[in-house]
Amino acid sequence: MTDRPFAKALVYLIFTLSGFCALVYEVLWSKHLSLTFGTTIYAVSIVTATFMGGIALGSYLIGRYADQKKNLLTIYAVLELGIALSALFFAPALMAIQTFYVFLVQSFGGTGFANALHIFFSAILLLPAAVYMGGTFPIMCRFFARQKSGGQIGRLYAMNTLGAMAGAFCAGFYLIPTFGLSTTGWLTITANMLIAITALILSRSLGKAEATADVSMSKRHSLPQLATDNKVLLLSISAVGFFSLAYEILWTRVFLLFLGNTTYAFALMLSAYLIGIAIGGALYARNVHPQLNERSIFIVLASLMGVSILVTVPFYDQLAYLFQFAHEASGERWWHLSTLSFLIVFTVMGLPTIFSGALLPAAVAIVDPGKTRTGEGVGLVVFCNTTGAVLGSLVAGFTLIPAFGLLNSFRLLAIANILLAIFISYRLTTQRSKAFVPILLVVTLVAIFLPAQWDQSLMNSGVYIYAPKYASMGGLNKILAAEKIIEVIEGVDTTVAVHENLDGTNRFFTVNGKTDGSTGRDAATQILVGHLPMLLHQSPQDVLVIGLGTGMTLKGLSSHPTKNITCVEISPGVVEASSYFDDANGFALCDAKVNLVINDGRNLLLTEQQSYDVIISEPSNPWQSGNSNLFTAEFYELAASRLNSGGILCQWIGLYDIEPGNLKIACNTFLRTFEHVLAFKAGSDLILLGGNTPLQFNYSALQERINHPQISQVLREIEIESAGDLIAKHYLYDRSALLDFAQGAGLNTDDMPILEYSAKYNLGEHTLGEFQATNMQNLLAAQKNIILPIINLGATRWQVAENLRELGIGYSKSGRSDTASHFMRKAQSLEPGKTSPAYN
Questions:
Q1: Under a CB-based contact definition with an 8 Å cutoff, are residues 584 and 617 in contact?
Q2: Fewer CB near the terminus (10 Å): N or C of the chain?
Q3: Hey, which residues does 543 pair with through a beta bridge?
C-alpha cells in the first residue's frame, strides 16, 4: 500500500473501531440470547463457544482468500457491511427463532434436545457475523503485509484488541445503561456502516496490495504447506489459546467473589484481560527487529506466562484486603472505586495476559508466511489459537473447577503451561537455547510439592457488598473470626459457601460471597414468601417456586391442598448446599410432591407448557446478572401467561440494597402487568402478590388453613398464630396505594434493564440500613385509610366479632394501637354485652 501517513492512520482507526463494535455486539447478543435460552452456565458457554468458533473459522477461510485478491480494502468494506447487516437482522431473526425454538422444545422436550437446539440456533444467529469478524484481521494483515510481518501484525493485533477493550468497557459501563439494548445496537450498526463506507472510499485512493500468481488455488499445491511444516508451533499456539481462556474463566470466578456477580464486574474483568492482550501485541511490535530470535522469544514468553500464574496464585485470598482498601480509599465513590478495582484486577491479570498477547504475533513471525501469504499464515495461527481458546474455556469451566477447585485448577494449568514451554524448547530450538529448562523444571517441581491453600473466609467474604459493614465493625479479621465455613462448593457456575456462627445460632450460605439465605433473621421472609400466596389462593394445586435457597420457602407448602410443587434452581451448587439446611427446611426436597429442576426459571416458563396456580419468584437481588432477567416487565408478562384463572404471582424484593427510586421502578414494573396487587412487608423485605382476579383475605378460609397442624407449626416459627397476626403484622396495602407510591417511576424492561445496572448505588453506608429505613418510610407514607380487602369474617355475628377481636389483637402486637382499638370497637358494637379481652 502507499505510505501516506494520514490514510494509514485512518485505516488503523477504522480497524480499532471495528474491534470496539465487535465486543459491543458480543455483549448485546449474549444478553439477547440469555432471554431466550437462559443464563445457565451451559447456555452462556454455548453462546461464547459459537461466537469464538465463528471467528476462528472466518480467520482461516478468509485468510486464505485474502492472498488471492488485490484491493483488500474493498473486501474489508464488504466484511464490515456483512457484520452490520447481520446485526441489523439479528433481533427479528431471534424473534422468529424463539417461536420455533419454544414450539420444538414443547413438542419434543428434554434437556439434551433443548441444548442441541440452542447450539443450532446460536450458530444460525452468530456464525455469519462472527465469520466476517474473524476475516477482518487476516485481511488487514495482508493489506499491511511485509516480507517479515511480525511487528506489523503485533501492531494491528494491539489496535484491534484495544478497540475491543474499549467496546467491552463502554458497553457495560455506559452504552447499555444509558441507551438500552436496542439503541446501543443501532448505534453500533451505524458505526459499522461508517467503517465500511470509509474503507470503501479509502480503497479507491490507496495503493493495492501485491497479489502474485503463485498464491492462486491452482498453484497452491506446489507451495510449502504452512500447516504441515509448522505442526509443533500451531499445536503450541493452540495450547496458548487454551491456557489463556482457561485462565480467564478461572480469574472470572475468583474476581466475582470480590467484585460481585454484576454486569459491571464482567465488563471490568474483560476490559482488564483485553488491555493486557493489547499491551502484549504492542510491546512485541515495538521491540521486534530483524535479528530477533522469534523461537526463543516464543518459548520465553510461554514460560513466563505459566510462571507468573504459579508464583502469584497462592496469594489470591489476600485480594480481599486490597478490595476492602479500595472501598475505604475511594470513599465509596463509584468511579473511584471502579478505577481502583480495575487496577487491582489488572495487577493480577497483567503479566500473563501481556505474555499471551505477544505470543500470537510471535507465532506468525515464526511461521513466516512471507508477504504474499500473510493472510493464510495469520488466518491459520488465529484459527488454532482461537480453537484452543474455545476448548480452554469449556474444559476450565466444566471439568477442572468441579474436579479440582479454583486454586488447584490454576496450579495444574500453570504447570502444564510450563511443561509446554519445555516441550517447545526441545522441538523448536538449539541445545544452547535449552539452558533455562532445568530452572523451569525446578520451579515446576517446587510448585507441585509446595502446599498452597487459600483462606476461604477471605475468599468468600463478599467485600463488594459488605465492605461498609467490615469497616464499621472493626475490620475483616474481626468479623470473619466470629464465624466458620463448613463447606465451600466450587461448581461449574458459582462458588457456594456454607457458614455458621461460632455459637451455632445461625447458619447461612453465600453465593459468590453474598449471603442468599440463612436460619437467622431472614428465615421469616423465606417462609412468608412461600406461604402468603398459598394462603390467599383458594386451592393452590400446581405451584412453581423459582429459587431453592435454603429450601425454607418450600417448608410446609405441601400441606396446602397441592398436587405438584416444582422448584427450579439455576445453580447445582445451591442445591448441594441446601442439604446443610435440611433441619431448618424440614427435608423439603424429600417431599413426594416436590420436583426439583435445574434450569433457568425464565427459560422454564418460556419453554414449558405447564400452567400454575401459584408462582413464587424469590431470585437474588435484581442488580445481579442473570437474576435481573426475573424482574423485567417481559418476565412478569410471561409469568402471568402461565397462571391459571385465579392464579397468584409472588415477588420478593429486598429493601436493604435497592435505591429508593429504583424500588419505585421495581414496583411500577410489577403493577404494569397485574391489575390486582397486594403489598406486604417482612422485616427488611417487600413482598408483592399479583393476580388476574381480585385478591382478598377470605378470613374464615384463611384461618382454617392456618389451623392445619403442619402449616400452623411452620407459621408459629415466624410468630403467626392467626389470620389476624398475618394481616396485622405484614399487610401494607392494595394496588391503589402502591400506584401512589410508584407514581412517576419508569419501567424495568429487557431492553432498558435499569435494575441490572443499579449495583453502583449499593455502596457505603446506604447498605448499612439507610436504604432499608428510607424505603420502608416511603412505603408506609403511601398508606391510606382504606378498607382491608377482607371477606367472610364469619357466618354469625359472634364469629364476626371474634375475628374482629383477633384482628385487633394482631394490630396491638404490631404496635398499631389506634387500628387495634378500631377493630375492638367494631367487635364490641356487634356484641355489646361482651367485654373485650385486654390486648395491650
A1: no
A2: C
A3: 565, 614
Q: What would the grid cell of residue 644 be?
A: 391459571
Buried b (16+ CB within 10 A) or exposed e, 721-756: bbbbbbbbbbbbbbbebbeebbeebeebbbbbbbbb
Bridge partners of residue 611, in order along the sequence = none
Residue 441 has what pLDDT? 75
- Is the pLDDT confidence value at 335 over 90? yes
Pairing state of beta strands 612-617 and 643-654? Answer: parallel
Starting from the edge strand earliest in sequence, which strands make up the sheet with 507-511, in order? 483-490, 495-501, 507-511, 514-518
Q: What secondary structure does DSSP assign to 531-583, as a single string? A: HHHHHHSS---EEEEE--TTSGGGTTGGGSS-SEEEEEES-HHHHHHHGGGHH
Nearest to 349 by CA among 431, 259, 421, 435: 259
- The DSSP secondary-structure symbol of 733 reads E
Q: In what order do the strands lie in the sheet with 564-569?
A: 594-598, 564-569, 542-546, 612-617, 643-654, 685-691, 676-682, 731-734
Q: How far apart are CA 129 and CA 26, in angstroms?
A: 10
Query: pLDDT of 60-85, one tens digit each?
Result: 999 888 877 678 899 999 999 999 99
**b/e burial code for range 687-711 (CB count within 10 A of at least 16 → b):** bbbbbbeebbbbbbebbebbeeeeb
Calculate ∠ Cα 239-243-248, nearest 5°: 150
Task: Identify the residue whose cell numbers are 464465624.
Answer: 483
Q: Is residue 212 scored above 80 in pLDDT? A: no
Q: For cell 464499621, name the residue.
A: 472
- What is the model's pLDDT at position 1? 46
- Please name which of 726, 790, 749 lies closest in space to residue 666, comparing C-alpha atoms: 749
Rg of the Cα trace of the chain? Answer: 30
Contact criterion met (CB below 8 Å) for 685 and 618: no
User: Among all chains, which residue has been given the C-alpha cell 468479623?
Assistant: 479
Cell numbers describing residue 154: 503485533
- Give the Cα separation of 137 and 361 in Å (integer): 12
Give CA–CA dist 200/75, Å, rounded. Answer: 9
Asked if 791 and 697 count as a contact pair (C-beta separation under 8 A), the reply is yes
Q: What is the per-residue pLDDT across 178-207, written as a single tens digit (0 to 9) for each?
A: 999 999 999 999 999 999 999 999 988 775
Percentage of residues of the chain with pLDDT beyond 70: 94
Distance CA 619, CA 602 (A): 11
- pLDDT confidence tier of residue 226, bands split at 50, 70 and 90: confident
Q: Retrieve residue 636's grid coordinates.
A: 412478569
Q: Read off the pLDDT of residues 465-483 as tens digits, 9 standing for 90 and up.
A: 999 999 999 899 999 999 9
CA-to-CA separations, 738 to 232, 373, 531, 669, in angstroms, rounded = 67, 68, 22, 11
Given a cut of 80, whether residue 220 has pLDDT beyond it is: no
CA distances from 146 to 64, 368, 373, 491, 837 (A): 17, 10, 10, 48, 97
Pull the grid cell for residue 15. 480497524
Query: Reduced to 3 states, what is the DSSP secondary structure of residue 528?
Result: helix
Q: Which residues, other chains included, contact 357 with Cβ-Cβ below 8 Å and sequence gap of 6+?
A: 157, 158, 161, 276, 277, 278, 279, 280, 281, 283, 284
784 grid coordinates: 391510606
The mean per-residue pLDDT over the stretch 524-536 comes to 96
Confidence bin at 209 (pLDDT 50/70/90): very low
Q: Are 240 and 388 in contact (CB under 8 A)?
A: yes
Q: Where does 144-288 have alpha helices with state H?
A: 150-170, 176-205, 226-229, 231-259, 263-287
Which CA distances in Å does 395 have to 227, 287, 404? 25, 34, 12
Q: What is the residue-averaged pLDDT of the chain?
A: 90
Confidence of residue 835 (pLDDT cuts 50, 70, 90): low
